Amino acid sequence: MILPPATLGMLGGGQLGRFFVSAAHELGYKVWVLDPDPHSPAGLIADRHLVAAYDDYVALDTLGSECAAVTTEFENVPADTLDYLTKFIPVHPAASAVAVCQNRIAEKSFLADNGLPHGPFAAIRSEDDIRNANAGLFPAVLKVARFGYDGKGQARVADRDEAVAAFQHFKGEPCVLEKMLTLDFEVSVVLARDEAGNVRCFPTGENRHRNGILDVTIAPAQASACLRDNAQEIAECIADKLGYVGTLGVEFFVCRGELFVNEMAPRPHNSGHHTVDACDVSQYEQQVRALCGLPLAAPRQHSAAVMVNLLGELWYADGKGHGAYREPDWSVLHAVPGLRLHLYGKHHARPGRKMGHFTVTGDDPAAVLERALGARAAIGIRDE
Ligand code: ADP
Ligand code: MG
After folding, report:
1. Cα–Cα nearest to 99, from 69, 78, 121
2. Which ligand is nearest to the CA of 254?
3. Pick from 132, 182, 311, 362: most CB atoms within 10 A?
4. Does 339 sit in the ligand 1 pocket, CB within 6 Å?
5. What is the rounded distance in angstroms from the CA atom of residue 54 to the CA atom of residue 102?
6. Helices 57-66 and 79-86, interaxial angle, to 10°?
7. Cα 258 to Cα 280: distance, rounded to the nearest angstrom
8. Residue 150: what pLDDT?
9. CA–CA separation, 236 vs 197, rounded Å?
């Protein structure tokens, strides 16, 4: 067991890392963050911020010699970096698990090989692969295999010609071609798994997206207990097969009442932010516990919760990214009972950039949802 006042290493300095730093600090640990951005949200509150690239081996040597263990909040950390650090200290999750989650071809193949439910897809490495793809895949979504996030690196394509054009636009990068599914709704499961293989799931949440980016999470999901349990079972199976250690997010599509795994995130997940305010242990504390070999807590969600993401366009007068740049009127949110606001301290707001979120909690799920959607409208988030 790694105990305070040990120092933990965090690869990545985004908001997920920032909440990890807070959770680790509460438990008495120190945290060093590695992120090339001098203004990274986690770096700002870390005990030390190494401003360096993820493949800067001098910085990695420093982390490896000063930290007791290292984890990540950024799924595109090079697997080689994780492998390298393994020579010095425990690294959770392992490079092998992260490598599966950070490449959509590897991820989909993993699901297929393990008999886990997923939508129809084809791996695309050449234009010929598009020509040979099953006609039943169209209309489809072409997604770059690596480095896509928040709907970036994705193109909706009606037919083969559009898919070829999109593939060329992505400069021939390896892609997956996914059948466009008609979604009833989307859900996710956040869980933690320890080295002994114990798994603790948070309740299944329901996710609403806007322009390909998570907008609202309703927790627990407004779905049957059977579907919610089934999602947890599938997520647990994924964690087991990956030999995963740490906090893992699994996204699902629900299509005609059936679950299909969309993707996995080898880190805490945006849809688990509410665990800070609505559960007796957060997804970030579970990440600390798994990393340090502490017993995982059995999470109990004590309040219904709705989380709303605050994206950069909110900082612009028209609410869409145009017009005068100004700070949103936070007093509107602070007036809402049961609402907690979290701002990440990011330097500059760009449309689509995750700047903060708020969580509304309470006893009655319907009232919480109504209050959260009311606050969302009041701060200026509009549905086109
Ligand atoms: P990201 O890494 O950006 O989260 P996702 O693959 O999760 O990428 O896609 C973002 C969102 O786009 C999904 O949550 C879903 O709303 C929509 N989407 C993605 N793929 C499909 C699909 N095959 N069919 C229908 N909707 C999709
Ligand atoms: Mg996603």
Report:
1. 78
2. 1
3. 311
4. no
5. 15
6. 40
7. 30
8. 77
9. 10
CB 338 within 8 Å of CB 371: yes
pLDDT band at 383 (very low <50, low <70, confident <90, very high): confident
18-40 pLDDT, tens digit per residue, is: 999 999 999 999 999 999 999 99
**Residue 382 has what pLDDT?**
87
Q: Considering the entire predicted model, what is its pTM?
A: 0.97
Mapped onto helix, strand or coil, the DSSP state of residue 202 is coil
301 φ, ψ (degrees, to nearest 5): -85, 115
Provide the pLDDT for residue 384.
72
Ligand that comes closest to the CA of residue 157: 1
Which of 350, 368, 263 lies closest to 307 in space, CA to CA? 368
* Average per-residue pLDDT for the chain: 97
Residue 139 Cα to ligand 1 middle (Å): 14
**How far away, in angstroms, is 151 Cα from ligand 1 center?**
7
pLDDT digits (tens, 9 = 90+) for 340-359: 999 999 999 999 999 999 99
Mutate to test the pocket of ligand 1, among 76, 260, 262, 309 (most ligand atoms within 8 A of CB): 262
